[in-house]
Amino acid sequence: MPTTLSSTTRPSRHLDLELYPNIGQERVLLGLAGAFVVVNFAALNTVRGASILAWLPVLAWMAAAVVGHRALNHWLPRRDGLIFPVCMFLSGWGLAAIDRLAPAFADRQALWLLVSVTGMIFSACSPRPLHWLRRYRYSLLVGGIGLLLVSIFFGVNPSGQQGAPTLWLGVSGIYFQPSEVLKLVLVAFLASYLAEQYPLLSARDVQQTLGGWAFSPRVFGPVLLMWGVCVMVLVWQRDLGTALVFFLAFLSLLYLASGQVWVLLAGAGLMVIAGFLAYQLFAVVQLRVDIWYNPWIEGEGRGYHIVQSLLAFANGSVFGQGIGQGAPGYVPVAHSDSVYAALSEEWGFLGAAGVVCALMVFTLRGLRAALAHQERPFYALLAVGITSLIAVQSLLIMGGVLKLIPLTGVTLPFVSYGGSSLLISFVMAGLLLRLTSTEDSHAL
Amino acid sequence: MRFERSVAHLLIGLMVAFGLVLTSALYWGVIGSDEALASAFNYRQRDALAAVQRGEIVDRTGRPLVDSLAVAAGDWLRVTRDPSLPSITGYASLTYGTGGAEAAYNLILTGADQPQTFAHIFERDALHLPQRGSDIRLTLDLSIQQAAADALSGRTGAVIVMDAMTGALLAVASSPSINPATLDTDWESLIKRPDNPFFNRALQGEYQPGGALQPVLLAGWLIAGRTLDEALALSDGLVAPVVLDEVILTCVQSPAADALTPTQALLTGCPAGFEAMISVLGETATRDLLALFGATQHTELTGFSLRASSNASESVSSDWINDALGQGRLQLSPLDMAVITAAIANDGNTPQPYLLEASRTSAAAEWVLLSPPAQTLPITTAQTAQTVQSLMRQAAESGTAAGAAQTGLTLGGHVGQAVSGQKSLTWFTGFVQIEPGHSLVTVLLLEGEITPSEAAQAGGVILRAAVDANTRLNDF
Question: Which of A27, A373, B10, B26 has the most CB atoms at less than 10 Å from its CB?
Fold first, then answer.
């Protein structure tokens, strides 16, 4: 008898067919996304007078969309019909943006898209990934942290730039970012761990005893673990963005599992303390906070990145300059971390709003999937973890290029250039699709 | 229920965060975009300017003065066709902005003045078609401009050549000047130079007029009903210098006669004679005279920002005699002086100077006249003006401006000297009639130790070039 996350007896909602759009709608949405991608590539290739080979990324996207849709239809016919189109829409948009910003990387990203959709099909259509994530959570966690440690000592930066963060492991020209794998592993581990501890965490007497809560190893253990991982990422890899993503996703899960607001408050307090210490100890953090506070006084120096990002938004205005018509090349790493700024320059505020809306839909559907599994804590918490991870990471980088928060170097899921990020994002989307499946006995 | 509530809280938190992102994107992209785009770090603005093919600048005969050459797709090189031109045509740099006529007529040259029709906006903002500014035709004549620049060669000074009837500026030269082709590399050294090559002395300079005001004083003498041959009552003798504060003014030439008349005072440039004349005229009449000839009002030139104040009389001192003798606080630019000289040459009618003549939207389009000559302003009788003209012709033959004489030309001239601080200034003001009632005037200002004959000779050469250029234009 599985433990339910609901405190009251409620009828299961995960079999409610009306909860999700039907598969026909998914086909229509994919068609619309495809039309968007084709129109953008047509405009881009018209602007730069490219050859027929320039359409290869579009063909790859179409192949991924068709194969993904058909595979999901075959193995997962009763699923959320919005998640896959949203992911394909964002990745198609990203493909067009990358082809425009860094043409040399477009084919590679298209290849990664095919690999990623394959990964998504596997994670969505097979029960094994969910099973493995739960059963081998400790092994996977140790493996993930081990990979992170390896990258700390043997990490490289694909650009070869001196002083750039060495977050990648590379073999024969293929680079992979272990922290991306660690995101999924950590979320799965925490979901699994907290699901097991849920009866105790939610017990009324425990909740009413603050001391027991705070010093219980059941809670203190994962907090310490997450804190350690985040500090490790922050200190050794100078990767503030990933550390923040880890910690915020973890806080979301802990809050969901406990239902205690003080968890969020304590987490926020820890973040403030960590941020203060990081500001005092690490020059890179100090730099980012300083230029966040007022980038305009050093617009040609340390504030260049954020100033050019803001100018990209200003230059885009409402409708944008049009693909291939703006000057997003002024924004550093425009095809990767800053793709949201570059995208806003050429698609305008409407484009920026389009991306946000797509991510909001993804978030909404992800959390809805969690609600549908209240009687299965692991699945519910996994859905929340995955959704939080994607949403928080998106918010961090979008807020960063918009000067809402200090800029952190994370990718915009599904959109930015980066094979590791794209693959893990699609794998997580696949897991989410699996969790939205209404075929309880077969799918899960 | 608790789980649902927690999920709802999380959802609300994330949606609020997405909403903040949207609001921020709206602010930077739409509401606050103008402020951001005005930033000095907006290199996109520079790119947009670089992609615009600035219109061509031609002289009144259609000869190219400045044009844009394509060096790559969407990349233009601005080329000034003659080294005599930058002091008036200025520069158009992506790094340092615009100056001179390039700045004055920037909107036309970049096409920003063209009607913002839907088709135009669509072509520019949606299709991003190459933008081309309009061509402009100036009143300048390249031949005259070259002669003016030659006259200044190696010296510090300025030249104006103007059509006295229409006010068309045929040459505007200032020295030293800049080379727009090397501006980006030379900028730092140019802005540190003490002689300020960016300063247009012809249009913006403010100098003591000194003896250059003497024809005006003579006209005032005539307006007051006095005669030219009456002996002036001199306090200290014929050639005694006039001492004003710490400045000593002497005759440009030594008078030959025993008694000094107004005619001889003008021909020899003797300040003592004019001091006697303004003593007779009195303060009120003298001040009115200066105002009448426009000496107390700075001349304006459409498109150019010449000075902070247009009123030269703001700085006129209480010592009206000093002002009238051109050594007070009254300061004039060569353009101001050209307008005064033109009033005399144009039979007492003051023209309004202008530089921009016409524009066209493309090389194939018709020229459209932009600045029809303004009405001249009568300030004195033709008889008075013609009398002064006559005396200036005499001065060009045997007076202060004798060196100006040119074979086959009957020209009038006057040389006046002034002292500005530690610097000596020499003015040549002259005119030549090209047809009845139609004259060309020139004003030459040279800083430093220049003899009157050198200044007159240079002025004569400029007038010769102006007449020759006009003849060619008429023949054409």
Answer: A373
- CA–CA distances in Å: residue A51 to residues A48, A105, B256: 9, 16, 90
Q: What does the pLDDT read at residue B245?
A: 67
Would you call B44 and A259 a contact, using CB atoms and an 8 Å cutoff? no
CA A360 – CA A398 distance, rounded (Å): 13
Do the chains contact at B40 and A310, CB–CB below 8 Å?
A: no
Residue B72 Cα, gap to closest chain A Cα (Å): 15
How many A×B Cβ pairs under 8 Å?
Answer: 134
pLDDT at B109 over 90: yes
Residue A440 has which token pair? 């309880």
Nearest residue in chain A measured CA to CA from B26: A349
Domain boundaries, chain A: 17-443
Joined together, the tokens standing for residue A54 give: 């320039």
Return the closest-CA partner of residue B82 out of B150, B160, B135.
B150
In tens, the pLDDT along A386-422 reads: 999 999 999 999 999 999 988 887 899 999 998 889 9
Pick among A402, A405, A407, A415 to test the B interface (most B CBs inside 10 A): A402
The domain limits of chain B are 143-178+199-356+374-475
Highest-scoring range by mean pLDDT, A94-108, A197-211, A302-316, A351-365: A351-365
Are the Cβ atoms of A367 and B25 closer than 8 angstroms?
no
User: Which pLDDT value is given to residue B375?
Assistant: 81
- Bond before B176 cis per omega within 30 degrees: yes
**Average confidence (pLDDT) over B129-156:** 93
ipTM for the predicted complex comes to 0.89
Q: Do B22 and A308 touch (CB under 8 A)?
A: no
Q: A115 or A11, which is more confident?
A: A115
Q: How far is B42 from chain A (nearest CA, A)?
A: 7
State yes or no: pLDDT of A211 exceeds 60: no
**Please, what is the Cα angle at A164 between A163 and A168, to 5 degrees?**
130
Flag whether pLDDT at A3 surpasses 50: no
The Cα–Cα gap between A245 and A266 comes to: 17
Q: Which residues contact A174 (CB under 8 A, 6 or more apart)?
A: A419
CB contact set of B194 (below 8 Å; sequence gap of 6+): none
3-state SS, one letter per residue, for chain B: CHHHHHHHHHHHHHHHHHHHHHHHHHHHHHHCHHHHHCCCCCHHHHHHHHHCECCCEECCCCCEEEEEEEEECCEEEEEECCCCCHHHHCEEECCCEEEHHHHHCHHHHCCCCCCCCHHHHHHHHHCCCCCECCEEEECCCHHHHHHHHHHHCCCCEEEEEEECCCCEEEEEEEECCCCHHHHHHHHHHHHHCCCCCCCCHHHHCCECCHHHHHHHHHHHHHHCCCCCCCCCCCCCCCCCCEEECCEEECCCCCCCCCCCCHHHHHHHCCHHHHHHHHHHHCHHHHHHHHHHCCCCECCCCCCCCCCCCCEHHHHCCCCHHHHHCCCCCCCECHHHHHHHHHHHHCCCEECCCECEEEEECCCCCCCEECCCCCCCEECCCHHHHHHHHHHHHHHHHHCCCHHHCCCCCCEEEEEEEEEECCEEEEEEEEEEEEECCEEEEEEEEEECCCCHHHHHHHHHHHHHHHHHHHHHHHHC
Whether CATH 3.60.15.10 fits B143-178+199-356+374-475: no
User: Do the chains contact at B3 and A296, CB–CB below 8 Å?
Assistant: no
Residue A373 has pLDDT above 90, yes or no: no
pTM value is 0.69
Which among B4, B18, B32 is the nearest to A395, CB-wise? B18
